[in-house]
Amino acid sequence: MIGLGTVGAGVVQLLNQQRKLTLKKIAVRSLEKPRRIELRCPISANVSDLIDDPEIEILIEVMGGEHPALEYIEAALERRKHVVTANKEVLAKHGPALFEKARRQGVTIFFEAAVAGGIPLISTMHKGLEAIQISSVIGILNGTTNFILSKMEESSLSYEAALAQAQKLGIAEADPASDVDGHDVAYKLSILSALAFGQFVQPASIPKQGITNIGPDALAHAKELGYRVKLLGICRKVNERDNKSYLDVRVQPMFVPVNHPLAAVSASKNGILVRSDAVDEIILVGPGAGQMPTASAVVGDLINLASALQLPDFASYFHYDIAPQWAQLADKDDFVCPFYLRLSVANLPGVIGRIGTTFGAHDISINTILQHGVHNDHAKVVILTQAVRNGNLHRALQELSQSDYVKGVEECVGIFEPAYENA
Ligand SMILES: NC(=O)c1ccc[n+]([C@@H]2O[C@H](COP(=O)([O-])OP(=O)(O)OC[C@H]3O[C@@H](n4cnc5c(N)ncnc54)[C@H](OP(=O)(O)O)[C@@H]3O)[C@@H](O)[C@H]2O)c1
What we know:
Helix 1 (about 5-15) packs across helix 11 (about 290-310) and helix 3 (about 70-80) runs parallel beside helix 4 (about 90-105). The radius of gyration is 24 Å and the shape is elongated. It is about 35% helix and about 25% strand. It starts with 5 loop residues before the first helix and ends with a helix. It has helices at about 5-15, 50, 70-80, 90-105, 120-130, 145-155, 160-170, 175-180, 185-195, 215-225, 290-310, 350-360, 390-400, 420; strands at about 25, 45, 60, 80-85, 110, 135-140, 225-240, 245-255, 270-275, 280-285, 335, 340-345, 365-375, 380-385, 390, 405-415. The model has no long low-confidence stretch (mean pLDDT about 95). The chain contains 14 helices and 16 strands. Bound molecules: NADP nicotinamide-adenine-dinucleotide phosphate. NADP nicotinamide-adenine-dinucleotide phosphate binds near residues 6, 86 and 290.
């Protein structure tokens, strides 16, 4: 095993409780660090002690980061070792080449811990739902942002105060960028796309909107209107005009109706909704991270892999049907949903009418429009649109921002309507 941090120490604890599997060696960065767990195998600061050991059949990679984790995984596959990894970043960025290498070498990569930690999502999608065609996977895939948004809503906290609480509890990292800007969810969506639709998506190409601009006003309005704000990862197959299918993959905060099961996924939990024609909807909810939930996913993979090692040519059974090319994404301007908007406008007669005219010119119908108070020379206007094309909305907002009567677009959040996400 490479790595003996949060997850690695949990794996050691679980393996110490059983007798079937033996850890042969552990590699770490620093031998000086005190380890507060019982270790029953040698520990080394030299990864090649593991990679070059011909007796080792399975490499567990729980060190994290892109490099040198990628090179270690590649070296293990080249030496025909199976790999169990929790590393979403490496899989999302290098999945096509890694799975192709594993296939050529006749070995497998297990990665239950890489997405939604303690929830058995990967095995459910890979084996449990193997017979059906998945049409969409939509979920709350990041516990840190879900905790922050839940705290902001429950305790009327600012984003900064809720983040500080998450950091104090060890739920958010000192540098929270990967979580709050949506990169972590994008890695997970890339992996889920590979499982659901047979192709990884380049994480850099996934449209991402994080939660740093969500303010208490949006959360209060959401509550007033019967919604909760959740950071959603969305991955759907869509058929475009030329009869080709593309993937609509995006990360965005959305207003979720309070009576939808995803709205009830609170604190640092994850929740994933998998949709297919044959099974309709299934929803999985549970801890998406944390030491023991993640370690249990790693050890679960090890147990599966170790039992399979008894069978001849088992690797083909675990083979993932993943293409070596990256998926093609649908045009992000084309996705359709209703929106919540908050504008700061000049306090002048006729402004609401002019906003309506601009929206009309871009084919946008308004559902509700409310004026929330007047401060000096400007007023706050909250608008709920009907379902609109993302591209039309952004063109209309750009035009409004350049006008002399709209001072600024303070918030623009999509509204999750299952009917549009399933279309
Ligand atoms: N923590 C979670 O809840 C969670 C949940 C899901 C997935 N994951 C994934 O699990 C992986 C591990 O996360 P973690 O939280 O356990 O990380 P961590 O606590 O930072 O531990 C990293 C471990 O890797 C070792 N390491 C780092 N660079 C190394 C190198 N170049 N050579 C050898 N060892 C090296 C470190 O050694 P030293 O101890 O000597 O510094 C440390 O033991 C990551 O991919 C992460 O995304 C974590």
